[in-house]
Amino acid sequence: MPVVHCPTCRQALTVGDGLGGTVVTCPACQQPMTLPPMPAAPAVVAQPDFVESFAVPSRPPRREYEADPAPLRVGSTNWTLVALGGGAAALLGMVVVGVVVWVLVGRTTATPSTKDKGPVAKSAPAPQPKGKVEPLAATTPGRMDDANLARIKKATVYVRIRTAKGVSSGSGFFVEPGLIVTNHHVINHPGRLEVVTQSGTVETRTYPARVLFQDATKDLALVEAAGATTPGVLQVGDTTALRETHEVYAFGFPLGERVGQEITVTKTTVSSIRTGGDRKRREVQLNGGLEHGNSGGPVTDVTGRVVGVAVSKFDNTSVHFAIAAEEVTQFLARYER
């Protein structure tokens, strides 16, 4: 607090804040006095409880595969650099000596005259094959030929169920005239079941269908399209020759009619062969390539044989699955019995 002096007795007095300009009585001489104006007390700025540091790091963060360089002490000698410099100087000296020797030897060596040369033999022409030479055929490894591609596309169908809530859809393929293999979860909805052949082409046809046989555990179903003209059937093969990294092809109608009525063909690769266990069926694990709507469609090798039926995937991953062809063969054999 500020200190003032009484104008009468010069007694030092301590004045409280906010009393400047008021009339008070000096406690020493009992004489009235007017206090001079007092300066305002400085304002106190409240400080936050916590201030987060945004300091710029002294060096950028290093990548995990970058090793920290060993520091070089100030005033120390880098013997590695000295050794490299000495080696470079020695090598340069050897090169200079070699050039001088080569020049001197070249001058002292007699150059033979053209008169001393014997007859120069002419090289015989390379023998040419007899008969007509056929050009090599151009091949594209891993590419399915056009005939197989067209055949599988014709045999793959769009499976659709019209329900009270809308349309549920998937894919399937002919294994016999009028008989179509698909997934159980594709047709397991109440409503009117239809199959569309050669969807998205001028030959497209829609047929009513019914479920003949199904297995919820294997997630397979056999559907009959009454009166359907079968544009082709597919052979169900096996997975014995299938290996990881082998290329396969998924045929079907991903996302239904939202992306169009035409068939989609996707090339992918085999990631693993699952032999059962807790998944209760043999499956081919694929490195992506499937979407909702591919379910029930054929997965074939490059020769066009069915090696699996598209069935499921883990969303937002490339871990996708197809039911192995052996499971399909067993399923069809049970129906025929």
UniProtKB/TrEMBL annotation:
Which UniProt key words apply to this protein? Hydrolase, Membrane, Protease, Transmembrane, Transmembrane helix
* SUPFAM superfamilies, alphabetized: Trypsin-like serine proteases
InterPro entries of this UniProt entry? Peptidase_S1_PA (IPR009003), Peptidase_S1C (IPR001940)
In this chain, the stretch annotated as Disordered covers 112-142
- State the source organism's domain of life: Bacteria
What residues form the membrane-spanning segments?
A: 79-105
Give one GO biological process term. proteolysis
Is Coiled coil one of the keywords UniProt gives this record?
no
First-level EC class: hydrolase
| Database matches in Pfam families | Trypsin_2 (PF13365)
Q: What is its EC number?
A: 3.4.21.107
Q: Tell me, what is one Gene Ontology molecular-function annotation carried by this entry?
A: serine-type endopeptidase activity
Q: Which Gene3D superfamilies match?
A: 2.40.10.120
Q: What is this protein called?
A: Serine protease Do-like HtrB
Protein species of origin? Urbifossiella limnaea
GN (gene name): htrB_2
